[in-house]
From TrEMBL:
Protein name in UniProt: Ribonuclease P protein component
PROSITE patterns: RIBONUCLEASE_P
Complexes and interactors: Consists of a catalytic RNA component (M1 or rnpB) and a protein subunit.
Upper lineage: Bacteria, Bacillati, Actinomycetota, Actinomycetes, Micrococcales
Gene (name only): rnpA
Domain of life: Bacteria
Stated family: Belongs to the RnpA family.
Assigned keywords, A-Z: Endonuclease, Hydrolase, Nuclease, RNA-binding, tRNA processing
Catalysed reactions, semicolon-separated: Endonucleolytic cleavage of RNA, removing 5'-extranucleotides from tRNA precursor
Transmembrane segments: none
Length: 116
């Protein structure tokens, strides 16, 4: 579970990450990352629309994504905001598949950020 300091809570924060951040897409999720330059913990936000499925399925996907992010939080650079948008294919994905997609995208976006 992600503690409060590690979560995005404002709509303006979500909007800025999605619009100005770098993006990595996959079959199940789209990950957007924005380096803010602030000295604080990385923050994560999740967008799971009704296209993913019923409320039970959406909450299951959200809990799995939160668990993945809690596991990889040490690998995300300080002061980074991350938004993960679940696609309809994430409804049938296993935890391992979601974990592979998210970690692949976070690693790629961190490399791009370091090289820039």
């Amino acid at each position: 579970m992600l503690a409060r300091p590690f979560r995005l809570t404002r709509g303006t924060d979500y909007r800025s990450v999605v619009r100005r951040g770098v993006r990595c897409g996959g079959a199940r999720v789209i990950t957007s990352m924005l380096a803010t330059g602030e000295a604080r913990e990385p923050r994560f936000g999740f967008i799971i629309s009704k296209q993913v499925g019923t409320a039970v399925i959406r909450n299951t996907v959200r809990r799995r994504l939160k668990a993945v992010c809690a596991r990889v939080i040490a690998d995300v650079p300080e002061g980074t905001d991350v938004v993960i948008r679940a696609l309809p294919a994430s409804a049938t994905a296993t935890f391992a598949e979601l974990d592979a997609d998210v970690t692949r995208c976070l690693a790629r976006l961190s490399r791009e950020r370091a090289s820039a």
